[in-house]
């Protein structure tokens, strides 16, 4: 087929072709790799991937990875669910070479297109970690952290990933840990991919902020933890310093702590009803102030069954709640008060809500590792 003069000009001008390709979403670019060896080389280049992620730092969430448990044997596995009706969903099969049997890589956190996964080679062994990009099917191993402190090291949260492609192509892996031999103090351990090294920092005061972490969120360059006493404390990734704590107004049970569209949010049930919710957002200018964004009534969903079933909030995505409603994954539009079926669990499957988080957002990205 003979090329038109315009097409021939583009084909022969590498810089112009790159500028055009940068305008396409990551999913399209993955398909474009099969056009020619030249396009494959351009799109696979790490500098191109970094440029594309910088230009598209906040793509929409296309799906979720769910941590599922099989009732009969108690083992866990990961399944992806599309939020956009896509038939081809990502898997973690490319990581099956790590770990053994039930200790294959499991997701501990997702952040802007990258996943942090933990795997083991035996029951008593300590966990190993890797960071992967499920879109490009690439990964890199995180070197183990060997603290200089004496025994008494207890992680108080799973490994956490902090990644903002609009600022840097590097990422950080963060642990909140406690050392009983150090007067029961919290410490924050940070691995920086650009330095390829670990550092540790003094963390929050255990006596003031509570012992257990009920959740952690990366939002606006800060990792926030929610303690069992309803205190939110944070660690600024850039300055590598703890930030001022804030107490959550306690008017009901907290059932979700997360991020949506660059805002830190939490969801509380009303004291008199488990199907009436309040979605609150932390004021960016005053982190001690929480603003009610939505009052939600899930009672219309009771029509899905003759009896009330338990439910769990999996995530919040731009005006929609994604719920595990008694084994059925649905999205609930907060403004229209309508719902849409996303997925049903297979017989014997259930979402593993024993974890702090059971759903991890999936974003298509070309970010290099």
Automatic annotation (TrEMBL):
Residues 12-52 form the F-box domain. Pfam families: F-box, FBA_1. This is F-box domain-containing protein. InterPro entries: At3g26010-like, F-box-assoc_dom_typ1, F-box-assoc_interact_dom, F-box-like_dom_sf, F-box_dom.
């Amino acid at each position: 087929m003979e090329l038109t003069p315009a097409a021939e000009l583009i084909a022969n001008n590498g810089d112009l072709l790159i500028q055009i390709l940068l305008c396409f979403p990551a999913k399209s670019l993955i398909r474009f790799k099969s056009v020619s060896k030249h396009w494959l080389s351009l799109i696979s280049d790490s500098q191109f991937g970094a440029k594309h992620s910088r230009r598209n730092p906040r793509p929409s969430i296309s799906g979720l990875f769910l941590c599922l448990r099989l009732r009969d044997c108690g083992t866990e596995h990961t399944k992806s669910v599309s939020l956009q009706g896509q038939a081809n969903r990502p898997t973690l099969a490319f990581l099956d070479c790590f770990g053994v049997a039930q200790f294959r890589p499991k997701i501990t956190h997702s952040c802007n297109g990258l996943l942090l996964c933990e795997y083991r080679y035996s029951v008593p062994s300590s966990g190993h970690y890797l960071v992967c990009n499920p879109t490009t099917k690439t990964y890199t191993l995180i070197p183990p952290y060997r603290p200089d402190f004496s025994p008494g090291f207890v992680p108080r949260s799973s490994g956490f990933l902090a990644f903002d492609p609009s600022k840097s192509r590097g990422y950080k892996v963060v642990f909140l840990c406690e050392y009983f031999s150090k007067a029961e103090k919290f410490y924050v351990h940070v691995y920086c991919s650009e330095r390829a090294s670990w550092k540790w920092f003094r963390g929050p005061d255990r006596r003031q902020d509570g012992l257990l972490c009920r959740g952690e969120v990366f939002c606006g360059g800060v990792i926030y933890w929610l303690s069992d006493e309803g205190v939110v404390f944070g660690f600024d990734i850039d300055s590598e310093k703890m930030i001022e704590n804030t107490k959550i107004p306690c008017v009901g049970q907290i059932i979700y702590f997360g991020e949506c569209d660059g805002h830190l949010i939490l969801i509380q049930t009303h004291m008199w009803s488990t199907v009436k919710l309040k979605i609150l957002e932390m004021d960016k200018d005053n982190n001690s102030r929480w603003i009610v964004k939505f009052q939600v009534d899930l009672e219309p969903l009771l029509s899905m069954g003759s009896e009330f079933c338990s439910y769990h909030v999996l995530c919040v995505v731009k005006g929609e709640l994604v719920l595990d409603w008694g084994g059925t994954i649905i999205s609930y539009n907060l403004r229209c008060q309508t719902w849409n079926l996303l997925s049903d669990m297979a017989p014997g499957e259930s979402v593993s809500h024993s974890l702090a988080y059971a759903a991890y957002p999936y974003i298509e990205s070309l970010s290099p590792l």
